[in-house]
Automatic annotation (TrEMBL):
This is Amidase domain-containing protein. Gene3D superfamilies: Amidase signature (AS) domain. It holds the Pfam family Amidase. The lineage of its organism: Eukaryota, Metazoa, Spiralia, Lophotrochozoa, Annelida. Residues 15-123 form the Amidase domain. GO terms for molecular function: catalytic activity. It comes from Owenia fusiformis (Polychaete worm).
Amino acid sequence: RPYDLPPTYQSMCLWGEYTKRNYQSKHYGKAQNLTIALTAAYDKAFQKYDVIVMPTLPFKAPKFPDADVKISVLIEETIGFTTNTCPFDATGHPAISINAGFSKGLPIGVMIVGRHYDDVMVLRVAKALERNLTKT
C-alpha cells in the first residue's frame, strides 16, 4: 500500500529507484564507502568523549503544514530534517532524541549519541538529562 506512505517518503523511494535504474546504484556504492570514513571520524571523537550531545534538528521545528500543501512545497520544507540523525543510521552508533523543552510552543529536541554497543550509556545520559530538564 505505497499510497498510504507520506509523500516525502514516496519521493525518496522513487528517487532511489530512479538512481538504481539509471546509475546502477553507483551513488549507493559511493555512500557506503563514505560511511567508512564517517564511522571512523565519529569513533575518533568517542576516544575523547563518552557521548555526543547535539540538536536533533539543525533548525527550529516548523509548524505542521496545511493539509492542502503542494507536494513540491512539502518536500522542499522537509529537506534537512534528517541532517543530524541520518549519519547514525549509516554508522550504526546508538542515538536517542529527547524533548529538551519548547520555543514558542514548538518542541526542541536534543540527541545523545554514543559509542558502538554502548546503548546503556546513551540511555543513562538521556535519563539524567530528562530528569534535569524537567526540574527547570
